């Protein structure tokens, strides 16, 4: 079997409000993407890494230079491609790049694809390995997840609580999410048939697999795999780095 990793790093970073794409934001003296790629270089037996980068020229150039360094460090082929308007489009482009590479290189046998958010910059390598182990054990789709600590309620359009979900059953899902390439291809061809507003509501790729009625396995995530979305997340990540380095 072959293994490809798609790292989506094309988000605008609007919610961080720093006026630059999120992957280019400095966490320390290094960017979100550079931190994210640290874990990647420890992942075993990858055949290909696809980095999906912002279209904004300055960030693109800066981040493409980063990727060359990763390629050197982990000895894996790294392709960089431009992202799309929505996350799903960025992932879809990444998966297409994997398919094209597999054809060019005449890969035979099963292909496993990991889809990872660059914004989860401190995801430990062990989480990648848990997902890969579950794929090796026969799962077709795997997500890392953690129990939630807040009580989660569904709220209706008039700001009234419609339902309280039982917390014990809930998990907060992270990345990398793992798939067989075959299943991911089926999932994307399913999305192409969805109405645009439904497709826009897909916040991860496992959701597409659920829509197909296929099983999604869950493995343990990690608190350090939090997604940098707001300035509070950035503070947390900086504190975690200071703690491990200090
Ligand atoms: O926006 P959100 O926080 O859900 O983004 C999760 C990941 O998807 C981030 O790593 C971001 O860079 C990526 N993304 C992307 N292309 C987009 C939107 C988000 O690659 N158009």
From TrEMBL:
Q: How is the cofactor bound?
A: Binds 1 divalent metal cation per subunit.
Q: Give the enzyme's EC designation.
A: 4.6.1.12, 2.7.7.60
Q: Which UniProt keywords apply?
A: Isoprene biosynthesis, Lyase, Metal-binding, Multifunctional enzyme, Nucleotidyltransferase, Transferase
Q: Which cofactor does it need?
A: a divalent metal cation
Where is the site Positions MEP for the nucleophilic attack?
Answer: 167, 227
Reactions listed under catalytic activity: 4-CDP-2-C-methyl-D-erythritol 2-phosphate = 2-C-methyl-D-erythritol 2,4-cyclic diphosphate + CMP; 2-C-methyl-D-erythritol 4-phosphate + CTP + H(+) = 4-CDP-2-C-methyl-D-erythritol + diphosphate
Q: Name its pathway.
A: Isoprenoid biosynthesis; isopentenyl diphosphate biosynthesis via DXP pathway; isopentenyl diphosphate from 1-deoxy-D-xylulose 5-phosphate: step 4/6; Isoprenoid biosynthesis; isopentenyl diphosphate biosynthesis via DXP pathway; isopentenyl diphosphate from 1-deoxy-D-xylulose 5-phosphate: step 2/6
Supply one GO molecular-function term: 2-C-methyl-D-erythritol 4-phosphate cytidylyltransferase activity
A Gene Ontology biological process noted in the UniProt record is: terpenoid biosynthetic process
Q: Where is this site: Transition state stabilizer?
A: 15, 22
The keyword Acetylation is annotated on this UniProt entry: no
User: Record's family?
Assistant: Belongs to the IspD/TarI cytidylyltransferase family. IspD subfamily. Belongs to the IspF family.
Query: What function does the entry list?
Result: Catalyzes the formation of 4-diphosphocytidyl-2-C-methyl-D-erythritol from CTP and 2-C-methyl-D-erythritol 4-phosphate (MEP). Involved in the biosynthesis of isopentenyl diphosphate (IPP) and dimethylallyl diphosphate (DMAPP), two major building blocks of isoprenoid compounds. Catalyzes the conversion of 4-diphosphocytidyl-2-C-methyl-D-erythritol 2-phosphate (CDP-ME2P) to 2-C-methyl-D-erythritol 2,4-cyclodiphosphate (ME-CPP) with a corresponding release of cytidine 5-monophosphate (CMP).
Q: How does it assemble?
A: Homotrimer.
* Name of the protein: Multifunctional fusion protein
Per the UniProt entry, what species is this protein from, by scientific name? Nesterenkonia natronophila
Tell me the organism's taxonomic lineage. Bacteria, Bacillati, Actinomycetota, Actinomycetes, Micrococcales
Full protein: residues contained: 15 to 260 of 438
